[in-house]
Amino acid sequence: SLHDALPILMSNPEQFEVYSLLGEYYFRNKNFSMASSYFSIALSKEIPLKKEVNHIQELLKKCKEEAANS
Predict the structure, then answer these.
(1) Euclidean distance between the first and the last CA atom of the chain, given in angstroms as a whole number
(2) Nearest to 24 by CA among 56, 49, 68, 69
(3) Over the stretch 6-48, which tens digit does the pLDDT of each residue have?
């Protein structure tokens, strides 16, 4: 949950996973602006696997499409 993610984020702000999870939380709740922000931050962090980068990029693209359609 969002409440659980915040202490993790504060303890290690360089972890891309927390930003990605927050982006997914906001995406599921149709807050595409916040989701885009967190996905962008996640992509600015070190991400070890290309498939993870691709997944976040795809979600960011969907956010932008959803925002354009609303």
Answers:
(1) 26
(2) 56
(3) 777 777 788 899 899 899 999 999 999 999 999 999 999 999 9
Q: Which two tokens stand for residue 55?
A: 């997944």
Only one residue has tokens 């891309």, namely 16
Tokens representing 14 are 């360089």
- pLDDT-derived band at 52, boundaries 50, 70, 90: very high
Residues in CB range of 34: below 8 A, 6 or more apart: 22, 23, 26
Burial 20-37 (b: 16+ CB within 10 A, else e): bbbbbbbbeeeebeebbb
Name residue, tokens 């962090």.
45
Residue 48 DSSP class: S
Spatial neighbors of 57 by CB under 8 A, at least 6 apart, are 43
